[in-house]
Write a structure and sequence with these properties.
heterodimer, A: mainly alpha, about 0% strand, elongated, B: alpha/beta, Rossmann fold, 3-stranded antiparallel β-sheet, 18 helices, about 45% helix, about 15% strand, globular
């Protein structure tokens, strides 16, 4: 369980503060996240990304 | 009004003071005039002296967004974005985005948080707070007709993105400004778990710069300024055309009220049940500040727009339900104080009000008189007899006999033990009587 009290909702909003600036802002956000940006808004991609990250973490642990 | 600054705060102040943004914003009336206080050192709550102390021009009265009608909240939000844009033009930004940084002097919004100005770093960090304390409420008010007052009064931090998201379901999410600021923001807040600091660094690396922040401020200013409520008829919006006053009795009433305002040099007059503000505007030239209170949001919204366009500049309209005025909220109920604590009038007007409180709202008459005495100021009050057509309309909705004690005799008996009667006069041709009262010593 994540402790919600320690979540920083400000970081998610920061992306929107950039997007709200229009095309240039959207560009900045895409650059920041690369393909991760699609994961932010799509549960399927997010699950895929999470699986990849977990696989990576498991690989690191076994090292 | 003094404000202590820490070392970091003092550095921000020095930067602001040296910037053309400061003089420009003060000259335009958008920023509260502020100077350095050179009196004896003042200790901070941490036990050490403040690095610097600032002195702000005192506001005539402090009011809160949950007491403002739609257009006031919108104009306050637009002002905040204009201040941000000016700051950005000079390499500065605002640390936060709370709407409580805006106050009203009469009908003019002014930015009061000098401590919010700091050096620009990356995207506007106050964006989320701005959305929560003003933009979401404005969007809900404009697009869905949900009044913002209850929402902002309910929570000092305003409306979180996921709450706003919940009401913009289906096609509603395509209303102006909603998809970006509400839908995407709620989604991003849920899913982005990076810390703000690392996010800042990442965005900067990807090219977020001051021009992007300027574009954000400009676009949001345009969105906010373009928001509008649909106008509909309210209970009171046509009061002036349906009320029972003849021109003779109206002139008499105006004279009586004006005479009270021109004696004793009142600084602040509070008009309770101000309606379209006729009497607030009448007494405005005779005092520093009039606060025109009425529970009808639409009537107060119209009054505000009229005051902005035509003046007088020293009337501040407020949405206040007198049977449920704003309580103290926030930390220890002291961060935002209760409405009545902030009023501190020198003269109260309560014209054509008492029958609404006693008959309409079922408040026992002794309580109403005690409450009026609690303002501890002079009072001009109009007693509306039970056989007045307006009283009859209210009584028609109530069981017979319930308000048998609502009589002029009983009112006068209650007043006599709490106030000195300075003057009293029958309104010609009306079953109404006007009283000027002063609190009994």
């Amino acid at each position: 369980m994540r402790n919600l009290a320690y979540l920083d909702a400000g970081s998610g909003s920061m992306i929107l503060a950039a997007i709200a600036g229009g095309v240039a802002g959207i560009g900045v956000v895409f650059k920041t996240f690369g393909r991760r940006i699609t994961a932010v808004f799509s549960p399927a991609k997010r699950a895929q990304l999470k699986a990849e990250q977990e696989a990576l973490a498991a690989a690191e642990e076994s090292n | 009004m003094l404000r202590g600054l820490s070392e970091r705060g003092a550095a921000d102040w020095d930067r602001l003071q040296a910037s053309p943004a400061f003089s420009q914003l003060v000259a335009s009336g958008q920023l509260i005039p502020t100077t350095e206080y050179l009196g004896p050192a003042i200790e901070s709550p941490r036990g050490t002296p403040w690095t610097k102390v600032l002195e702000h021009e005192a506001l005539p009265v402090v009011t809160y967004p949950y007491e403002w009608p739609f257009a006031m909240l919108r104009d306050a939000a637009a002002l905040e974005l204009e201040v941000l844009a000016t700051a950005l033009d000079h390499g500065l930004t605002l640390k936060d985005g709370t709407i409580y940084n805006v106050q009203f002097i009469g009908s003019r919004p002014v930015f009061i948080d000098i401590g919010s100005f700091t050096k620009f770093d990356t995207v506007w960090a106050g964006y989320r707070q701005f959305c929560e304390t003003s933009l979401f409420s404005l969007l809900m008010h404009a697009h869905l007709g949900l009044p913002h007052q209850a929402m902002l009064r309910g929570k000092i931090d305003g409306v979180p993105a996921d709450h706003a998201r919940a009401v913009f379901s289906g096609r509603k999410k395509w209303k102006k400004g909603v998809f970006t600021h509400v839908v995407l923001q709620a989604a991003a807040q849920k899913r982005v778990t990076a810390s703000s600091e690392s996010m800042k660094a990442e965005l900067t690396k990807s090219g977020a710069n001051i021009d992007l922040a300027k574009a954000t401020a400009k676009k949001m200013r345009k969105l906010v300024a373009g928001l509008e409520v649909s106008t509909k008829r309210s209970t009171w919006s046509d009061y002036r055309t349906t009320c029972t006053y003849t021109s003779e009795s109206a002139a008499f009433k105006r004279q009586f009220v004006e005479a009270a305002a021109t004696t004793g040099q009142p600084k602040r007059i509070v008009d309770l049940g101000a309606n379209d503000g006729e009497y607030s505007v009448l007494v405005a030239p005779h005092c520093e500040q009039v606060i025109a209170c009425d529970f009808d949001e639409l009537v107060i919204d119209r009054l505000y727009r009229r005051l902005r366009a035509e003046g007088p500049a020293n009337v501040l309209p407020l949405v206040v339900d007198l049977t449920d005025p704003s309580p103290g909220i926030g930390w220890a109920n002291r961060e935002r104080t209760a409405w009545q604590e902030r009023m501190q009038p020198d003269l109260v007007l309560a014209l054509a009000l008492i029958h609404h409180l006693v008959i309409g709202a079922n408040v026992p008459m002794p309580m109403v008189v005690d409450w009026m005495r609690a303002f501890d100021s002079r009072l001009v009050i109009e007693f509306v007899d039970p056989d007045d057509p307006q009283s009859k309309r209210l009584l028609a909705n109530k069981p017979a006999g319930l308000f048998d004690d609502y009589t002029r005799e009983r009112f006068e008996a209650l007043v006599a033990t709490r106030f000195d009667i300075v003057r009293a006069a029958e309104v010609p041709g009306q079953p109404r009587k006007l009283y000027e009262l002063s609190p009994e010593a």
